[in-house]
Amino acid sequence: MKLILLTTFGLLIGTFCHAETSRPNFIFFISDDISQEDHGCYGHPVIQTPNIDGLASSGMRFDQAYLTISSCSPSRCSIITGRYPHNTGAPELHSKLPDDQIRFPELLRDAGYYTALSGKNHMFDETDRAFDKITHGGGSGGSGDWVELVRDRPQEKPFFFWFAANDAHRGWTVSEDAPEYDPAKVVVPPYNVDGPVTREDLSLYYHEVSRFDHFVGLVRSELERQGALENTFIVVGSDNGRPFPRAKSRLYDSGIKTPWVVHFPKVIKQGAATQSFVSVIDLSATCLELAGVEIPECVQGQSFLPILKNPEVSVRDVIFSEQNWHVYRNHSRLVRWGDFAYIRNNFPNQMNLCAESDITYPAGKELWQAHAAGETTKNHWQTFFQPISK
């Protein structure tokens, strides 16, 4: 009788463990202030991102991936709730996510997942019900403990990691974890001034983009060492565009278009790129569906799992994004469909600015100096545009 009970118990434990290990793991890498185009896999000719490029080559690169807002904390709050910023209760910079807002990692945690956030938080306090563990990450880019967290996680549970780098947020720091770039070789966006100050500024930004990539690669290597890569759903994205004039906080592609690289060998059998629309709020529904967790009605995102199975499939016809207070008072809304985008600026009597496009930082200061000297071209004028004069 004792043998029968022990055998039955062993079978039950074995079944439970199998169920736990068969459910996918999740890692969401979120960079800070990096535009989609600033990666090798998206065609940048200078910035080195070999690890993200590698994930894209054997996974899926989304070319039409969009943020709901190009502003740090409201973007993160939108992603973690799967809701548009004006519905999260935290639509503006430095707004704290209200306690009554459901974070999708908490639903994974309730379902038996081990959850951890490392690096930049910018959403809630240093403890939160969505995560078993929250750390500051450590190191120059806030990524220093990522490998340790993956290595030392509870082995009996599936996991969800929210790995949030400080790279590439101002101010710049230089470390040995990434290459340094020659300012003479950077690619200056046409709406920024091609001057020595802006080139130096961009070269330091490039360094931090590559440093983020470096730590993504370290985590991938650790997953491979553990034999866990095959069953881990990896997404690489950003919270908003590069911190330069006409990018961060704006509703143009330079501010609102995010890298979105997905690697999940169990579903994506060969490398592909897709032109199908995806919004960052779709991460919530996708992870919950893959984990077998019911998607609550409050989630406004929709699963992009069908696209991972067939890159020609569409799951949404339009993209919605918004702009709210970010150092400066602004209020704009965007709808994108097909090749068209409509932006409504509800404060047309003022310039549409944030700190990155005024004189606060080097590239912005050089742009304003050039404008004052009459040296800017029509490509630069949008930063200074005021539709309705006072």
Short synopsis of the structure:
The protein has 390 residues and is α/β, with parallel strands linked by helices.
Give the number of helices.
Answer: 11
Q: What topology, given as strand order, has the largest sheet?
A: 5-4-6-1-7-8-2-9
Number of separate domains: 1
Helix/strand-derived category reads: alpha/beta
Kindly provide the radius of gyration, computed on alpha-carbon positions and rounded to a whole number of angstroms: 22 Å
Q: Please report which band the strand proportion falls in: under 5%, 5-15%, 15-25%, 25-35%, 35-45% or over 45%.
A: 15-25%
Gross CATH architecture: 3-Layer(aba) Sandwich
Indicate the CATH topology.
Alkaline Phosphatase, subunit A
The CA-CA distance between the termini, in Å, is: 90 Å
